[in-house]
Amino acid sequence: MDLRHLHAFVAVAEEGTFTKAARRLHISQPPLSKQVRQLERELGTALFVRQRDGVELTRDGKMLLERAQAALTAFQEFEDFTKSVSSRVRPLRIGIGWGLWEAVERIRSHHEQRFPEMRVLAEDLCSERSTTRERRIDVAVTRPPVDDALYESEPLFDEQFVAILADAHPLASRKSIKLSELANEPLLMYDRCVGPGVYDKTLALFRAARVHPHVVGAQPPPYAHGAMMLVASRQGYYVGIASPFTQTHRVSGIAVVPLNEPDARLEVRIAWRQSETSRCVAEFVRSARAVFPWKAEASTSGAA
pLDDT tens digits, residue range 5-42? Predict the structure, then answer.
């Protein structure tokens, strides 16, 4: 005897026919009939009297029905309890866009003070196959685009677009740079899948400035060591992003200079699934709001 037999017995008893019971259990009638016969053989007694328009419980069937219903209810309660326990101990999986570790660590540190027992795991969003839809991610700290049809999201802070140059470059000591000043130099560009939001906004800034850069494509992303070597050896420059909460490219041989262009900024957002009901996710989002309150307040004030 197993749960299938009890489910079959209770469904037939409550529906009054094998046809309706099979429909309720989403199985065909032959396996349902077989399960009932197996239970009857196991018990050594008939549970139903088969009639032309349905079935009727036997005396033994009536005696067993209440107990079978109670057994299934008890199992459902146990299953629900184990799910609630699992949700408390299951680690929270966070997707992190490139360079955003510092921001995530600030949130994680604050969240750990609130929930010391919570385990947090990180997933890298820096590759083509690492989208929030394809990987088992509960919440993401990322850059646009965020699919509003699938995810809720809120802004955390802004990043500034910057030029990443060799520190020996004539413009390296400037406080800011116009894109037109770099028009004759090779622009090193990575594949779009590495960071679609940064990639698209970079090209949009050039279009707005009416500058047609000499693009050298298929290069390593700006945070990679290979990229730093290209810049330091004066083979070109990158357009990247920086903020107090973003790992910058300020390393030996490299200069990072803000771009002096309109709207040369990009929002970093926290995102989670539209249908999300997990309390763990909701509390992590609250921790993010506590760590980065000014952006949320500014967004609310602007909407008002």
Answer: 899 999 999 999 999 999 988 888 999 999 999 999 98
- What burial letters (b/e) apply to 111-136, b meaning 16+ CB within 10 Å? beeeeeebebebbebbeeebbbeeee
Least confident of 35-44, 124-133, 147-156, 277-286: 124-133
Residue 37 has phi, psi (to 5 degrees) of -60, -40
Tell me the β-bridge partners of 268: 157
Cα–Cα distance measured from residue 291 to residue 107, given in angstroms and rounded to the nearest whole number: 6
Beta-ladder partners of 183:
none
Q: What domains sit in the chain, N to C, each tagged with a CATH number?
A: 3-89 (1.10.10.10), 90-304 (3.40.190.290)
- The tokens for 55 are 């079935």
Please give the C-alpha separations between residue 276 and each of 137, 153, 209, in angstroms, as whole numbers.
Answer: 11, 12, 41
> Can you give the pTM of this predicted structure?
0.63
User: Mean pLDDT of all residues in the chain?
Assistant: 85
